[in-house]
């Protein structure tokens, strides 16, 4: 299949929600268990939460679409806590579509969406070795670690990575 990266819209919310639920369970169930992941999906990936991200000012929400299904999604926004920094909040590819370059293509588009940013930053779950390797291949380096990824009191340790963007 050929996927085209485009801006997400209201019509994509349900497909994105389903993709995130499937991808989160496939990725995180082995680390955190299905119940914890289901709780994360309910609170972080509700239709309203997705809509809010799509509509966020200073943000970009993209999907990889083949005309029938969405194979991946990415969301980044300027990071108010650090000047000239864009935060990559989400980049997920449907398990059946992984290793086809979809994540790389979504990231390449997101990387070009923030002309004032000098750095792209991402938090990656410490146990997610596959994602850590992916981001290293894209040019990210570890700059710090944190005990609470995703939400306060999550109990999910993470690696903070950054990539210098071309200016």
UniProtKB/TrEMBL annotation:
InterPro entries: Acyl_CoA_acyltransferase, Bact_Acetyltransf, GNAT_dom. Keywords: Acyltransferase, Transferase. Residues 3-166 form the N-acetyltransferase domain. It comes from the Bacteria. The keyword Acyltransferase applies. Pfam families: Acetyltransf_10. This is GNAT family N-acetyltransferase.
């Amino acid at each position: 299949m050929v996927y085209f990266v485009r801006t997400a819209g209201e019509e994509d919310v349900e497909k994105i929600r389903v993709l995130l639920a499937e991808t989160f369970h496939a990725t995180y169930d082995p680390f955190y268990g299905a119940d914890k992941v289901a709780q994360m999906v309910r609170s972080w990936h509700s239709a309203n939460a997705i809509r809010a991200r799509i509509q966020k000012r200073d943000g970009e929400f993209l999907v990889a679409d083949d005309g029938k299904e969405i194979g991946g999604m990415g969301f980044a926004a300027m990071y108010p806590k650090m000047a000239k920094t864009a935060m990559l909040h989400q980049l997920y590819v449907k398990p059946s579509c992984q290793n086809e370059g979809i994540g790389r293509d979504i990231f390449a588009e997101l990387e070009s969406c923030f002309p004032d940013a000098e750095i792209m930053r991402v938090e990656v779950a410490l146990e997610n070795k596959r994602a850590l390797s992916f981001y290293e291949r894209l040019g990210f380096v570890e700059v710090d670690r944190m005990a609470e990824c995703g939400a306060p009191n999550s109990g999910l340790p993470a690696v903070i990575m950054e990539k210098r963007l071309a200016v």
